[in-house]
Amino acid sequence: MSAGRASEGAGCITWWGFSPARDLLSTGPVRLEEDFNVLLVGSGDPRHILKTISGLKNQESLHMWVIEDSMEVVARQLLLLYLALMPKESMGNNEKTEVFLEVFGNSEIRSQTEETLRRAASQLTLSVTETLETATHASLNTTLLKFKERDELTRIFKLWTQPSSSSSECAAPVLMSTAWDYRVRQHLGTRYDSKKNCFNWDLTMKLHEKGCGVINKHQYAQWRERGLAFEMRAGVYQRTNPSLLSSRVFSQTGGKASYRGYWGDIVSSPYLSFGIETADKSLLRTQNGQHIKTAQDISFANVQELFQSLSSRRGCPTTSQSDAKAEEADRTSVTINDLMQLNGISVTFLPSDSLYKLPEKQKYSHFFNTIYFSASCVHQLGPTMRQIAAPDAVLVVELAKYILDLSKEQVAGFAEKVASVALEAEFEPWRDEKSDDVHAVFVPQRK
Fold first, then answer.
1. Per the domain annotation, does 390 fall within a domain?
2. Which domain does 304 fall in, by range?
3. What does the pLDDT average to over 96-114?
4. Number of folded domains in the chain?
5. Does some domain include residue 359?
């Protein structure tokens, strides 16, 4: 199609979600339990995990169960959780926030960040291969995955540990700048020569119209152009971020071929997860109609606050160090066992095909207090969900508001489809003044 392929903007793999982080235990009716089980289907990143943990009271415990249809997404979630759990003795909170956002939303990263990523991948490889029945760390539990899935995770982590000059399975490495530009060209087609106007249109007429005025024009254009969303330090961002590379199969004459490249979102932006909402109203102030702070500023403040809340649940308090001293610490000694252990918190990754099998297992009968579906996984929401949902369960479904390539009619149609699918699964809308057009919230039908 000469004008480009609009449907390609969101990509075919979900590296980040199309909605802000939510405390899933406060999304819906108030519940009085102290031990919660939450199922996440296709969330794409750990934003909801971190946000939900931050909302817990001291006596409450939380078990998150995660299903993704791609081991590449599972590998990246494990990496991001690993970074989030690094103790401040190894990495100060400021630096940890910067590194996390850099890995989270940048196609290219600094050499120091690449080194941190490689060391994390090495530890995750050991965790996946050496752990058989008991998880080394409760927040990085992969023991329920199939052996072939764990083998796939090991393969992915080993790719990440290789120097960027040989980080591809092919003879020639994947150059992220080339991979990113290919996607932009495919998406815009004949509009590529006026791409800056296209970027500005998507920002002002779509994102800003949807209430994302904090997304700065310069930062958004830089991300659309290069895949660089978070540039917080005076450093050189030119090492490929291997956690954003994946394989995609294309049909060709004579068969199919797999290509490694960047196949994620190139339109909506990673700012949606942490950068467009905040309880700190000072970050939303405007002057002469312009936001003083940017989505990058808000992302930093939000993620830093989430990391501080993780530290408050740390099981074994240790002597605190200043961020400056912590940044000088030797990170080679940080193993899975050195990561923060959070009181009452566990995250377990389930096999990619397990959603249909959970209702067959007695353990999961009326088990989950909250079930979350991303927009890309709504087709998997079926009547069997009632069998694994607790009597007072809440079903939260991500809507298509921030999938920019969809028209207003398509976004509205998607919301109607979600309501219809939920009704077939015997869930009814939960109506409350807190309801929004970003997530649809349902509760089990009362019989």
1. no
2. 68-346
3. 96
4. 1
5. no
| pTM listed for this prediction | 0.92
Average pLDDT, the chain: 89
SS3 string, the chain, reads CCCCCHHHCCCCCCCCCCCCCCCCCCCCCCCCCCEEEEEEECCCCCHHHHHHHHCCCCCCEEEEEEECCCHHHHHHHHHHHHHHCCCCCCCCHHHHHHHHHHHHHECEECHHHHHHHHHHHHHHHHHHHHCCCCCCCHHHECCCCCHHHHHHHHHHHHHHHCCHHHCCCCCCCCCHHHHHHHHHHHHHHHHHHHHHHHHHHHHHHHHCCCCCCCCCHHHHHHHHHHCECCCCCCCCCCEECHHHCEEEEEEECCEEEEEEECCCCCCCCCHHHHCCCCCCHHHHCEECCEECCCHHHHHHHHHHHHHHHHHHCECCCCCCCCHHHHHCCCHHHCCHHHCCCECCEEEEECCCCHHHCHHHCHHHCCCEEEEEECHHHHHHCCCCHHHHEEEEEEEEEECCCCCCCCCHHHHHHHHHHHHHHHHHCCEEECCCCCCCCCEEEEEECCC
Q: Is residue 40 part of a domain?
A: no
The pLDDT value recorded for residue 322 is: 42
Q: Is the pLDDT of residue 171 over 70?
A: no
Kindly state whether residue 437 falls inside one of the protein's structural domains: no
Rounded average pLDDT over 114-124: 95
pLDDT score recorded for residue 412: 95
